[in-house]
Amino acid sequence: xxxxxxxxxxxxxxxxxxxxxxxxxxxxxxxxxxxxxxxxxxxxxxxxxxxxxxxxxxxxxxxxxxxxxxxxxxxxxxxxxxxxxxxxxxxxxxxxxxxxxxxxxxxxxxxxxxxxxxxxxxxxxxxxxxxxxxxxxxxxxxxxxxxxxxxxxxxxxxxxxxxxxxxxxxxxxxxxxxxxxxxxxxxxxxxxxxxxxxxxxxxxxxxxxxxxxxxxxxxxxxxxxxxxxxxxxxxxxxxxxxxxxxxxxxxxxxxxxxxxxxxxxxxxxxxxxxxxxxxxxxxxxxxxxxxxxxxxxxxxxxxxxxxxxxxxxxxxxxxxxxxxxxxxxxxxxxxxxxxxxxxxxxxxxxxxxxxxxxxxxxxxxxxxxxxxxxxxxxxxxxxxxxxxxxxxxxxxxxxxxxxxxxxxxxxxxxxxxxxx
Amino acid sequence: xxxxxxxxxxxxxxxxxxxxxxxxxxxxxxxxxxxxxxxxxxxxxxxxxxxxxxxxxxxxxxxxxxxxxxxxxxxxxxxxxxxxxxxxxxxxxxxxxxxxxxxxxxxxxxxxxxxxxxxxxxxxxxxxxxxxxxxxxxxxxxxxxxxxxxxxxxxxxxxxxxxxxx
Lengths: 420, 166
Hints:
heterodimer; A: 420 residues; alpha/beta; Aconitase, domain 3; five-stranded parallel beta sheet; 18 strands; B: 166 residues; Aconitase, domain 4; globular
């Protein structure tokens, strides 16, 4: 019996010829990503108490993105701790206010197929879009990884999600994920490995694939995986990664999948998730006409270069409706600069968009920018839990960048296919 | 030892447990706002030794371990749920907060007196004089919990290593 991609990566990291679902193994970590919130300010006191440093600074990537911009003393202090930690631990891979960790990490060439990686953030499964096994952990667990270079895990089953057919115009990977949240539920992933496959997945550009892997978190999966192909390798090589041409980081044809779901991308309509759960997703037609106060294009899930391009394709030559605040927080500085050069950003700003920092922003809900009492927003982000992005009385609908842009133009939740 | 049950439903998320607005404050302050969005009195009324009882997918969402830490600071002695968000489960154990999967938590009512037997893998409801079967944790995680969590566990391991090598 062959192994799944997840099993192959975990077996290599555990130093075993073979692993099977359910086994508990200890793995050597190829890469540990930390950010300003769960990173230095939380792990440093633990490393100090253990009287150890980082096991291998070359395998650590530190990215500040949560308390950005630092607008008060607490946030500035958190950023200062991150900077002094990077210096003291000789972490050369330090990206200070360059964008959101999940987007910056591959953009700077740190991921490769077959890697076993952990991140101090729940959207760390994003790395699985590149054929790496990557999952999120809390700060104490991360401190353990930084101290020892190791982590335990229960070898996951693999849940295969096949997308046949071809996405229509104005439909995106975000719609695929919202549909999956509704169909499988927010614990449908059962903390196992969720693997995406099929023609519709292979046809996606890299950053759209990242949205699939990213929202494995919303399915409750430990990791989200897509086998690497030429699109993956081209992206990573352009980012400066040293990617080999071997095909070993694919699952075996006779590997066992614990579940196999098939969905038709051709029939997929734009999806909108009503407050306060991504699992409340339904076709956009169930919500068209709902008035919105804010349209937010942001986060690792919904403001990468590809997401900005989707929004701009709707907004070109149009304006946000009177009374609607259009906010855009490009997921990385590099993506923002490319969008600026190619004119994408200008389209959004001309439509009335207000540019926010390249950071987690309102999605994390840690900063000054939050939704006020009774505000209704439509957002390209991943989570609309009660009170996460603003007041407990605010109502957040989730949609694709296309849908957010179309809703900004109409002032009401709108089907983007009429605007493409 | 038993405690009073505080009962919650499915999909209690980390933003409810550890609201983002208070994430930059000291965790003791954040803990006072734990569950505020859905149960404004929880943080004020829960007492040392009490037990949080929930449905499916408790602690889903963010990796912020303040979600588990807040419960611990409030004195919660254990969380029993039908299932947990994977990262929350690991965080809780790493911080020394006992957690156990129990498929029949709907049989526990608010304010029941319950005791959690981690080693035996069961929940004893003293109010109804019933015992619910749970899923015992693997031995190495029970050992870590007995040490008080990952940090004291690692301290012990590193000290032993230094002794043998030194």
